[in-house]
Amino acid sequence: MSRIFNFSAGPSTLPESVLLKAQEELLDWQGTGMSVMELSHRGKEFMSIAEALKSDLIEILNIPDNYKVLFLQGGATGQFAFIPQNILQGKTKACYVNTGAWSTKAIKEAKKYCEVLVSASSESSRFTDIPNYASWVVDNQAAYLHYTDNETIHGVEFPDIPEMGDLPLVCDMSSNILSRTVDVDKFGIIYAGSQKNMGAAGVTVVIVRDDLVGHADKNIPSVFDYAQQAKNDSMLNTPATYNWYLVGLVLKWIKDSGGIVAMEQRNNKKAELLYQAIEESSLYTNPVKKVHRSRMNIPFVLANPELDKTFLSLAAEQGLSSLKGHRSVGGMRASIYNAMPEEGVMALVDFMQEFERSHG
Ligand code: PMP
Questions:
Q1: What are the distances in angstroms from CA 350 to CA 231, 264, 277, 358?
Q2: Beta-sheet strand order (sheet of 297-302)
Q3: Which residue of 12, 97, 321, 345 lies most exposed, with the fewest beta carbons within 10 A?
Q4: pLDDT band at residue 119 under the 50/70/90 scheme
Q5: If you take atom 15 of ligand 1, which residue's CA is the nearest one?
Q6: CB 195 within 8 Å of CB 201
Q7: Is 93 designated active site?
Q8: Is 160 a catalytic residue?
């Protein structure tokens, strides 16, 4: 068996111990003689997995009692549509901040359901920074204010929480949830897909404050109505049972590794290593303003784009995979989520330095 360092933006690398645990339990989960995939979602065995999943997430993120924690399907993309349908509450407008490709998609989808006021946009800087909070235009008649905490494609991350008066803050944390501590009580909704920091694809976590639950548009499908799912412990229909189990294993791994504070320290260190290597080089550059650089997705371009192909193929030969940047941005991108070990980042830095010596 040979494992490589996988820098994919998602689905992305998982902790090896999680994969081994899943392998060990594949045929016989805890003496049941069945795989988790084969367990009834209503049986006591799966119920214990579901209960641990929820309580571990609440513990790790320190989620207050006045929030519902839902595990849904449809991805973060689904939430782009389900959020307005759940929480407009008869209002006709919502505020959105546009800091990159994922905010842009969220805005486009929301426009099907309401008027969107773009409170701030960094499009003019080609999404290389976050507009100064003081410049944001917020309408207090709007139902909520949405932003994307980490732009997976552009490598831009909010350094802190933008607090904007009384509007409920709605935040897409798909690519940085569980990577640092967060004051959940500052948010109306936090949502995220599972395939980056939480597990395999197929689970969408929605953490929603109680006052925003129970106001869905009457035409919304029941499975996407927060109130109905909350009442049914996210089991209004058959959930993605095996994927819940995998997220549960990742949460246990986080707890065993020192919790979210340890994750944050490790992530800061890994990101510093890579940004420092980029700063010190004359071959690589990252276009993002320093204070807004993502700790999770680190795009960089080579001074001579003709070297891109060689860079990628030599990297792959050394077991450094999926470094190609998103097609809309070009260049390279290293995604270094929670599960990427520090050795992976060091191996990448060594490779980049060697490549610069031989090709720069
Ligand atoms: N938001 C962000 C920030 C993302 O990175 C992604 C996926 N890369 C999405 C939303 C969409 O997630 P999904 O594919 O699970 O719908």
A1: 52, 23, 9, 12
A2: 284-285, 297-302, 332-335
A3: 321
A4: very high
A5: 75
A6: yes
A7: no
A8: no
